[in-house]
Design brief:
Blueprint lengths: L2 H14 L4 H5 L4 H9 L5 E2 L12 H15 L13 H11 L11 E4 L1 H13 L5 E4 L5 H8 L4 E4 L2 E2 L2 E2 L1 H11 L3 E4 L13 H13 L4 E4 L15 H5 L3 E6 L11 E4 L2 H15 L4 H11 L3 H27 L5 E2 L7 E5 L6 H10 L2 E2 L1 E2 L12 E5 L5 H18 L1
Parallel strand pairs: 1-13, 3-4, 3-7, 7-8, 8-9
Antiparallel strand pairs: 2-10, 5-6, 9-10, 11-12, 12-15, 14-15
The protein binds pyridoxal-5'-phosphate.
The site of pyridoxal-5'-phosphate has 14 residues, from helix 6.
Length: 405
């Protein structure tokens, strides 16, 4: 069946049954659409948020699967607690307490990846029209998750150090948000990290107006240079709800993440999670625990940090060498993404079909804005391609940008 046929069938179905407005309005993620084209042969894919598959710890996971079946047997295949497998919760609590905040295992709710954490946050806080404050730009998947509950997004002016406190205060007073959504470390999409002084200012405002902060942190452990910045949780205590995940430090296909917050708040999340899927997959929780517990996770993180740090440098050097038409870009100290700003009113979305024809996929930046989209921007992933393909991809980018200029 062609895509056109499928769309026609979906259209007919939507007219026959009484679907919710929510189902009628759902749009597929633009990134998934671009990924369809980017998987064509010869296309260098800077578009997805995918970690490098050749670095997945296949052997370690294989051994962990066998150990899980030997050691835990039927328990690993049985229903389990909604908040998660206790050993894994204990492990995560200990591990993330190294930021300087003492988490107890009861402060952890295991989720099917952070994306489910975002959905649970949406269920907990958002009524139709509730205001959510976001950075500018922000993570597209969060916009999708919160839109599902009819959030009203208000973006706060953001520079290379994070949200501007004056604008944040103005928008808190004006809009009475249900929460402030932040990706403070190596942000998706921009790659920027919020500075210590901005964190202090944002936390001070969250406390002053008693507004929770949702700190979505999939990339915090992937730092390749520079110095760590203190965690929002340490500064903000009960005002900060942290989302974490093993997606970028082990593998996204396992779908294991967590919410870390005050025990009372976790109790509310637990009820939402129970209604949604009873609990996260028991087996993969055990597998993550068995893989990670004796230092293998830390070794693996060092390995991917080395490779990703090199790839980032290769991409930045290639941009400096080839993209010489006045474009600018962020030079992130970690994470997966780099953010390019094109000069002279070039539209990144109009340029995309040309880029795809030239064998390059990226995501136009405009999709990452909850308000005031900026179409001169684009997001590229520096971790997913080989060093050779990174150089070739940037050459292709430079060529299509020059043609569009
Ligand atoms: C900021 C941010 N939050 C959440 C997610 C979802 O991650 P997970 O695979 O854990 O669901 C991503 C994935 O790219 C992300 O970039």
């Amino acid at each position: 069946m062609s895509e056109g046929d499928i769309l026609e069938h979906v259209g007919q179905l939507l007219n026959r049954w009484q679907f919710s407005e929510r189902a009628k309005n759902l749009q597929s993620s633009i990134i998934r659409e671009i990924l369809k084209d980017s998987s064509k042969p010869g296309v260098i894919n800077f578009a997805g948020g995918l970690p490098a598959p050749e670095l997945f710890p296949i052997e370690g996971i294989q051994k962990a699967c066998l150990r899980v079946l030997e050691k835990y047997g039927p328990d690993s295949l049985q229903y389990s607690l909604t908040t998660g497998v206790p050993m894994l919760k204990q492990f995560i609590a200990q591990r993330i307490s190294t930021i300087g905040f003492d988490f107890s295992p009861d402060a952890i709710q295991i989720t099917q990846g952070s994306q489910q954490g975002l959905d649970i946050i949406g269920r907990v806080f958002i009524q139709p029209g509730s205001v959510v404050l976001t950075e500018e730009p922000t993570y597209l998947g969060a916009l999708q998750a919160f839109s599902f509950y009819d959030a009203h997004f208000v973006s706060v002016k953001t520079d290379d150090s994070g949200m501007l406190p004056d604008d944040l205060e103005y928008k808190i007073r004006e809009h009475k948000p249900v929460f402030i959504y932040l990706v403070p470390n190596f942000q998706n999409p921009s790659g920027i990290t919020m500075s210590k002084s901005r964190r202090e200012a944002v936390v001070a405002l969250a406390k002053k107006y008693d507004v929770p902060i949702v700190d979505d942190n999939p990339y915090g452990e992937l730092r390749y240079s520079g110095n760590p910045v203190p965690s929002l949780k340490v500064m903000g205590g009960e005002h900060v709800i942290q989302l974490g995940t093993f997606s970028k430090i082990i593998s996204p296909g396992l779908r294991v993440g967590w919410i870390a917050a005050d025990v009372e708040f976790i109790g509310i999340c637990e009820k939402m999670k129970q209604a949604c899927d009873l609990h996260s997959t028991t087996f993969t929780q055990y597998v993550v625990y068995e893989f990670a517990k004796d230092g293998a996770l830390e070794e693996h993180i060092e390995r991917i940090k080395y490779a990703y740090g090199r790839r980032r440098d290769v991409m930045i050097n290639a941009l400096r060498k080839y993209l010489d038409n006045g474009s600018t870009w962020t030079e992130p100290e970690g994470g997966l993404f780099l953010w390019v700003r094109l000069p002279n009113g070039i539209s990144a979305s109009k340029m995309l079909p040309v880029a795809l024809k030239a064998g390059l996929a990226y995501v136009p930046g405009k999709y990452f804005f909850s308000q005031r989209p900026d179409d001169s921007t684009l997001r590229i992933n520096f971790c997913n391609a080989t060093e050779e393909n990174i150089v070739e991809g940037i050459k292709r980018l430079a060529k299509v940008v020059k043609e569009a200029d």
